[in-house]
User: Fold this.
Amino acid sequence: MATETESHGDEAAHGGADAAHGGAEAVGMPQLDFATFPNQIFWLVVTLVVIYLILSRVALPRIAAVLAERQGAITNDIAAAEDLKLKAEEAEAAYNQALADARAEAQKIIAEAKAEMQAELDAATAKADAEIAAKAAESEKAIAEIRAGAMQSVEEVAKATAAEIVAAMGGKSDAKAIDAAIAAQLKG
Amino acid sequence: MEGDVVQMGAYIGAGLACTGMGGAAVGVGHVVGNFLSGALRNPSAAGGQTATMFIGIAFSEALGIFSFLVALLLMFAV
Amino acid sequence: MGTDDVATAEDEGGLVFHPMDQFIVKPLFGGDTVNWYTPTNVTLWMFFTVVAITLLLVAGTRGRAIVPSRVQSVAELAYGFVYKMVEDVSGKDGVKYFPYIMTLFMFIVFANMLGLIPMSFTTTSHIAVTAVMAMAVFLTVTILGFVLHGVGFLKLFWISSAPLPLRPILAVIEVISYFVRPVSHSIRLAGNMMAGHAVIKVFAAFAAVALISPLSILAITAIYALETLVSFIQAYVFAILTCVYLKDALHPHH
Assistant:
């Protein structure tokens, strides 16, 4: 009981001190202590005006400028990239063109070489044919000569044989008659 | 004695006022839950409605704050 | 009923908690009276808010780098976030009010965050502060609506898409909800801040009891994380509601 009274006393003293200190403890909720309202409102208005001035004069234009600059840089970079892409495409087209040209050239060269070779081959064939024909003609001539030679030999042998036979039979060999007879036989 | 009764009433009233915050909790949960179920059905439209959800939360939460305020007023200002 | 009675009652219970003491406005340099010009802890923490905003948005962007540093990218993120919000919600012609909304948003978000520092003072937990901001928004929007549209601004309350017999009733409801706007706008922010900090303080008082102190420290950690989220969301909500009201003033036709 005594302690309780004491604590009451303490509290009273404490509360008194508080009341003397700020005057704010008159109401339980400091938010409803209307004595401090003008003070808060005044400082709030000062703060808000200061913040507004800082933001609208310095911070916001600067950030907006930075963002716009960045946007511009990005747009430029995109445009540059687009440009480079176009150039790359052009280069690719040129490369493809060159490739096609080279291919066509190669085809042409191949065709020419083929034609040349064909021509050479034809010429060689013709030459060979001519040679073969010439050789064949020569051979035929030789054969004809040989044949003619053979016929003559046959004639001479026949004449000699006929003269011998005539002589053996006791007749007188008449060269002229024998020749005529053999020619007639050979003509047959 | 009379002051004690007043004080007791004030405290009981403060406690009762706090039940209002449960209502606010239900309301906020309802808002967010419905937003979420709608958002999962149509996720592409959800992004644009987040602000609306926060406004809804703010409105339903304000009522809970009012009841809290009433409780505080009963405890400290009556 | 004053603090004395409450404190007494709580002292008898063995726990000492003064969850509301952190919101007391005190003069910085001693003295008893709080005049309108007295530098108080409100002044100090509002000054810190200004300093923090300046550090982020002015000093952070000093480099004006195309490839931003960390601080600069945070500043650009904040700028882009608020700008997109204004553009999306209020429309293209709302963009010229962007600096006002940016001012409100940056002030609230920094005041909330700085208020989470232990032993600090949360300026936005005071109804006086938030009420001034909400009233400023309300008056600006209302005056802007009448300046831009004249009497046509009243069409905001006359919902032409509703059936005719319902319109007067809806108009009454709309008018009431219009005038409740600054109240809910201000109390939402102040109440959220106050509630979070008071809850942290209550758990901090429980931490003095050895038996439950681990639990209460855990709870403080969780509530602190929640409060960090709430600090941001409340600033966002305040700004986006300002945008919504601004849209009503710019385009009152439903």
